[in-house]
Amino acid sequence: MNDYIVSLIEQGKRIDGRKFDEMREAHVEINISKNAEGSARCKIGDTEVMVGVKMDVGTPYPDSPDEGSIIVTTELSPIASPEFELGPPGIQATEIARIVDRGIRESKAIDMKKLGIVSGEKSWLLFIDVYPVNDDGNLIDASALGTLAALKNTRYVNYENGKVKFGEFTDKKLELEKTPITFTFIKIGNSILLDPNAREEKAAEARLSIAVYGGRIHALQKGGDRGFTEDEIEKMIDIAIKKEKDLKKVLDKAK
Question: Is residue 58 classed as helix, strand or coil in its secondary structure?
Fold first, then answer.
């Protein structure tokens, strides 16, 4: 199959008929869980991811006593792909969580100081759980977009007299300062492809994920054995910046 994918790409074609810089259709649905403070389902092509956000109160880190924290985890189960196994998070799950976390953190999408309650004693903790339901490639971008949708619709739980009253939602919503959109590219031969499907991922020799907001780069994550030239990196950045508005519209239209 890899040889067939490579052969197609050498002819300037993709197995699903897309252009090299074309994404699959993206769709986002919010508030899919009544129990989570925020939740969303994101589909990019046949890839589907669910994201849940839970809030709790804990002790802030000593080096940031006035700030809250975010914790991102990804669970890859056989439900999403027969290639995934049950058990502790592996390398791929850890990397997806890291890329999602980095896009939010480096762009300062959330003002962590607004999550502070009592300096050095109490702050809000955001637990972001990513659950892929079907893996047809590019779980990274689906996870990142789904996370933004879930965070945009996260409501604070009631916190009174030092206790969190789970299930009692307030009218206060989590403020998102920015919505960094992540775009993932792969390299096969000398060609660069945006939004790889599962078969293309298997043939990939290198990968680059770019988080952009407002025409600026906020995070980069490289994967794979091969490298990218300076021209290739500039090309990918240009594509990501141009495509940002398209996924921003998908995010804003989410219901």
Answer: strand
pTM listed for this prediction = 0.95
Angstrom CA distances, 132 to 81, 84, 118, 140, 146, stand at 9, 11, 36, 10, 10
213 phi and psi angles, rounded to 5 deg: -150, 130
Please give the share of the chain, as a percent, with pLDDT higher than 90.
Answer: 93
Structural domains in the chain, sorted by start = 14-252 (3.30.230.70)
Q: Which residues contact 161 (CB under 8 A, 6 or more apart)?
A: none
Taking CA 37 as the corner, what is the angle to CA 33 and CA 40, rounded to the nearest 5 degrees?
45
Return the amino acid letter for 213.
Y
Nearest Cα to Cα of residue 125 among 68, 169, 65: 68
Residue 163: is its pLDDT beyond 80? yes
**Dist. CA 246–CA 249, nearest whole Å:** 5
